[in-house]
Amino acid sequence: MTPLLTPPLLAFQDVAKSFTLHLRGGTVLPVVAGATLTVHPGECVVLGGASGAGKSSLLKMAYGNYRCATGAIRVRDGDRTVDLAAAAPREILRLRRTTLAYVSQFLRVIPRVGARAVVEAAGIEGGLAPEVARARAADLLARLNMPERLWALPPATFSGGEQQRVNIARGLIADRPILLLDEPTASLDARNRAVVVDLVAEKRAAGAGILGIFHDADVREAVATRIVDVAAFRGAMAA
User: Fold this and answer.
1) By percentage, how much of the chain surpasses pLDDT 90?
2) Do the Cβ atoms of 125 and 152 come closer than 8 Å?
3) What is the pTM of this model?
4) Is 152 buried (19+), middle (13-18) or exposed (0-12) by CB count in 10 A?
């Protein structure tokens, strides 16, 4: 069955988001309006558009970090659907453990915990047995060309590119069905960008649905099954 013939894992329906600038006299800054898109199993939907168009805001709404002002963001959770726009915080946290994986541009972890332990912990939180999480963490770090001598060191001591590789491993270690990728290759060299392309392909083949931002044109073309131009959602604000 082709991806678009299966029910979506993630669906935005007529979503709008704005920010109120309280230090600017309550000025309202519109971000997106009328945002409607779907992500099906086996798809990698890439958000396109200029900087500031609202791409990262859409990802953060899909993870529950931002609340939308209007509309619905539906996440398939087993045999039911949850609307993130109406979900309680406890429900959103549960979905993050079981269903939603998010790779941001920046690594935020507990200080003084080694890189391998950081990745393992993400796997265990995602439902893996400890021994499976340990093996997967080692495999991912090795594939991402992280020298084994660094695995026991805290990522705070790493370069930006090394931290990003740990971040990718954390996000991909478990088998969550929805992956949200916010410029995961921005700090990587060509060798490791190619590894990420392979990892995305493997997740797609396993049935995951991916919504991502990739500013590197070669990576974007390699991973995208569809590209959604976010500028269309800004146009809706002027309508």
Assistant:
1) 79
2) no
3) 0.92
4) exposed
CA angle 42, 44, 50 (to 5 degrees): 165
Q: Please, which residues bridge with residue 229 across strands?
A: 48
DSSP string for 52-68: TSSHHHHHHHHHTSS--
* Same domain (yes/no): 159, 190: no
Residue 205 lies in a domain: yes
- Residue 11 and residue 87 in one domain: yes
The C-alpha angle with vertex 15 and arms to 9 and 18, in degrees rounded to 5, equals 135
Q: Of all helices (H) and strands (E), which one includes residue 71?
A: strand 70-77
Distance between CA atoms of residues 164 and 216, nearest Å = 15
Q: Same domain for 143 and 220? A: no
Claim to verify: residue 22 and residue 40 sit in the same structural domain: yes
CATH number where 80 lies? 3.40.50.300
C-alpha dihedral (83, 6, 60, 232), degrees to nearest 10: -100
Q: Which of 39-43, 110-114, 162-166, 220-224 has the lowest mean pLDDT?
A: 110-114
CA distance 134 to 106: 23
178 near 9, Cβ under 8 Å? yes
On whether residue 157 sits in a domain, the answer given is yes
Q: What angle do CA 117, 89, 102 make, to 5 degrees?
A: 40
